[in-house]
Amino acid sequence: MAIPFSYSLRNLWMRRLTTILTVSGMAMVVFVFAAVLMLVEGFEKTLVSTGSYDNIMVIRKGTGSEVQSYVYKNDANIIESFPEIATGTDGRKFLAREAVILFNLTKRQSGKPANVIFRGITDESLQIRPQVKITSGRPPRFGTTEIMIGSNLANGFEGCDVDGELRFGKHRWKIVGIFDAGNTGFGSEIWGDVYQVLPAFSRTVFSSLTFKLQDGETFAAVRDRIETDPRMTVTAKREVDYYQEQSESTAKFMRVLGLTITMIFSLGAIIGAMITMYAAVSTRTSEIGTLRALGFQRRHILIAYLMEALLLGFIGGCVGLFLASFLKDLTVTNMLSMQTFSELAFKFILSPAIALKSMLFAMTMGFLGGVLPASRAARMKIVDALRTS
Questions:
Q1: Which has fewest Cβ within 10 Å: 100, 123, 166, 278?
Q2: What is the reported pLDDT for 97?
Q3: Which residues are 343's β-sheet partners?
Q4: Domain map of the chain by residue range?
């Protein structure tokens, strides 16, 4: 015969003040824990969704990102001859020659400069990235110094409005459009004609090549041909894999830092739960003696008090997750990518996996906070408990 679940629930209700205080501490820790996971998830999803499975990126061997990479024009001509590359209705290969430049823009709110990416593109860049949609104005005309701005930049930086002008490199660049790139990193970039970008920054080589395959299953053969060609010193990888790699170092840093802070806070919550449960044991000694006299065994007492602690963790987890759910509509606009040292805008993402991890974390805090007091209650002898009362 086990002690009814209602017994544990009733005791929490009878100690409403201490229950609220303990639950509040746990809820705040769970909120921080879930927020860290949501932040990392949003960052990773934004970068990974930037890439496409059928798009292949070519960058210099040994470089970590497009910013450090350079690809010769002759390399582009060699790769463009590959028959596996998809072709448009006009007979042109879906191969985009691109240059990535970092420069400073001033933030609207703080007035401080921050690094942003200026991507030199070709017409093929737009064709292989259908997620890019013009939301205001029009696309830039190739052969001119017209540019279009990602919506995330337009919202967060000065001078990024349609019909405005930006001055960098050797040119004045006229903004003719704002584009939305969905939940991808492209929305934090500026795009313009690569053949205007290169001379403006005194460059003669591309940063990367991106092409679309007719059949994604031919990737391995194409990659091997590129990487073994003695005329080139470049490497090829799927675009989605490239952006996954880009997210790893920053995501790892955020995860380690955030979870370290959370662990420190969780110690306080565990100690708070432990104090609450020890107080419950000390004030209910006679109850414990009575339960033992009625025939309930030590394990029943242990389970009942552990159940109270787990309930504290469960309620704290639910409250913490509820508070964290409000972050879903929040956009982070000043996260620095450790690969490109440019700012990236993304949203917090609350997934079922994060919710489950948060609840398990909350229940673990409850268990750790209650296991010692529950053990003490279970070890009490009937005679001693009744005599104390």
A1: 123
A2: 93
A3: 336
A4: 5-48+246-388, 62-232
pTM confidence score: 0.68
Instruction: Report the DSSP pairing between strands 113-121 and 189-193.
Output: parallel
* Distance between start and end Cα atoms, the chain: 24
pLDDT for 295-311, tens place per residue? 667 777 777 778 888 88
Distance CA(200)–CA(168), nearest Å, equals 8
Q: What is the pLDDT of residue 68?
A: 85
* Residues 83-106 as b or e (16 or more Cβ within 10 Å = b): ebbbeeeeeebbbbbbbbbeeebe
What local confidence, expressed as pLDDT, does residue 176 receive? Answer: 92
Contact by Cβ (8 Å): 197, 118? yes
Under 8 Å between Cβ of 305 and 377: yes
Rounded-to-integer distance, Cα 79 and Cα 72, Å: 11
Which pLDDT belongs to residue 195? 93
CB 54 within 8 A of CB 216: yes
Give whole-number Cα distances, 164 to 35, 61, 137, 158, 167, in Å.
37, 38, 12, 10, 10
Query: Rounded CA gap, 98 and 195, in Å?
Result: 9
Residues in the chain predicted with pLDDT less than 50, given as ranges, are 336, 338, 340-341, 389
Residue 288 has what pLDDT? Answer: 63
